Amino acid sequence: MKKKIFPPEGARVNLGLCVVIILFLLSAVALFPRMGAERASRSAGIILDFRDVASLAASSGRGTEEAWSEMARRGATGLMVSELTGARLSLGVLPLYYGPASGLPDGARKALAAPLSSTSLFFPKTFSAGRKALPYLAARFPGMRTAQADGGTAVLLPRTMEDLLQTGILPDMDGLLLAERLQIPVFYRVGPALPGDTVPSVAALDRILADFPSIRTLAPAGETALGFPDLRPLAGAVRKAGRSVAVVEFSRQLGASQLNRLAFPSLLPLHSVTHEELLSRNISRSALLERLLRAVKERSVRLLVFRPSAMESSADPYGTFLGELGDLAAGLSAHGIAVTWPEPFSPWRTGIIGAAALALAFVYSLLRYLQRFFLFSGDDARERSGRVSGKGALLLGGVVLVTAVAVRFVPPAAKIIGALAAVFVVTEASFLALDGWRRPWAGLVGSFLFAAAGGLAIAAFFSEPVYMLRLRAFSGVKATLFLPPLLVLLADLRRREHPESLGEIFRRPPLWGELFLIGILLAGTGLVLFRSDNVQFVPAFEVRMREFLERVLVARPRSKEIFLGYPALLFWYYVRKADLWPRYREVLRMATVLGFSSAVNSFCHFHTPLYFILFRQFNGLWTGVLVGMIGIVLLRFVVLPLWEKYGRMVTE
After folding, report:
1. SS3 for 146?
2. Which among 57, 119, 59, 132 has a CA at the least distance from the CA of 89?
């Protein structure tokens, strides 16, 4: 006889419904700062590389100022100005001489008395920015020597040309001076330096930031950030000057993550596609525009670096680029994004309310799984485990309170409980859906609401700028793809949802159909885990399908929901009611779990705006149901007749 955990006497409440309501209420309160920040930060800046502007202006016979004015009217909001390396100076980017001292004018070479192979610069008098560059060079290269000569100023640098090939030497003065004249916000790229040159390089940066207030945000250039592995001097210079740091998406630069943590909260997410990537990946202009719009809509990117085409020819490159720039700005405006220079988040904490929401989602989902696994089975679980006495509710509240305190004040506990909460929320939402096959619409809606409530509860605690800016990673994303299917499978075998127990399966010879399905499941699980966060492995046809869904639905549902999870759930309802394929329908339950894993994972992308996540979930629900209903029609009128004719050959 089973022990009566829930005594019959006393008032009973529908605990699941109460938990969903409480989760929504707690989450709404805890998420209020995030929602306010998202509303206040619906802006994005379009940045143009100053050198691209200058090149396009020259090709069209315009002056740089005139070209910028036209581009600003089309939506450009800032300039990217870089610290120039020896390699770029050698290409003649600035109207000065850079090279060995042997190339200096005779008078300058004699005045410097330098070896012919020494690294030198010559600023002609016609280059007015040269006077501003000298103080910067003096700070950047202690021990440098200068000499006046006919026609300009010669500079001898105390480094070899090989040393300076890929290190920063001086800023692109033309770009900085243009920005100062026209009051254009600047995104400044700090060049790398030799390991022993960090201190003078930071001192030179201090001077640049003081002399050019138009510099609003910056980021290191090159494969290694300036000062790596100690980014404190660079971060200190940024904080002292009151500037922000650009968090470049998908950057593999050594030291970038350390700098972002040190500069927090003065951070602005930035998305950039280099000319090399445009060429190597054959990215079309339409695909580039959609990619940039997606970065702002789905990942809350605040700065976009927009470059002209590096491979598509045009009779009027300048006019073509103006049109593309206008299209990008119009696309942002159409989605309610103001095209202006953004400001960083102000920090906030979700506090004990967010911790309570996370704790409730975790404790309730965990207890429900334990009930299903150990106490009840079949109809008994559905009828009894959803209700609880008043004393049971008080006990649950006490456990939740203790867990909430641990989450709020013990960071390792928060990390572990957050990951487990995601796992068990997915598991409970899956059971609610799968066990609701007698009343499919109730099971479908109830499971959707619980997944949304549980996802919001997780977001309620982790929706702080440090997670939204991806300085800290949520540790439950991979776990929700692997553990919930395993937990559901183990419970199904124990509860005899599958007609055989685990022991009975191992004691008999395997069936060919089972081996085939196991192979498909293992391959599918491996593919899901491999493709998670590996967008470069998405095939071209799926990329085109995603782009189509984005254009039609705005918030594209995730593929695992629209083509796997919800259709599999409807298939399960159909075959369970018809009592078809009892040995093989477990695969539909596993596919359903993966769909709910994807749904809950969407809420764990804390950089995505909440309204977009909710819109995406709604689109995933109705489109997935639509696909599932079409699939059932095909199953009923195409697959089943074929199965009746040929299917037994597979299972025997």
Report:
1. strand
2. 119
